[in-house]
Amino acid sequence: MIFFLALSCRKKKAVHKSSTTDDKKLQSTLKRIGVNTIPAIEEVNIFKDDLVIQFVNPKVQASVVANTWVITGTPQTRSV
């Protein structure tokens, strides 16, 4: 007896993007919007429903004209 096993061939190799390219794209987009870094912010709290998302020593960037705020850091989630 002869058995044939049909295997599907993957024609396109999956390419994973690195986070550095994503960061570069994000930074270039933010620069185009005109975002400026706001220094000396020690803490940011975001209130959402029954949760508080807290950033300690975040990097805060803002563009008032574009109504855009960027908060970068490690979040801690707590309930109210």
UniProtKB/TrEMBL annotation:
Keyword Transcription annotated: yes
Subunit-structure text: Part of the nascent polypeptide-associated complex (NAC).
Protein name, UniProt field: Nascent polypeptide-associated complex subunit beta
Keywords: Transcription, Transcription regulation
Domain of life: Eukaryota
Family: Belongs to the NAC-beta family.
Family matches, as SMART domains: NAC
Pfam name, any one: NAC
InterPro entries recorded: BTF3 (IPR039370), NAC_A/B_dom_sf (IPR038187), Nas_poly-pep-assoc_cplx_dom (IPR002715)
Domain annotation NAC-A/B: ranges: 20-80
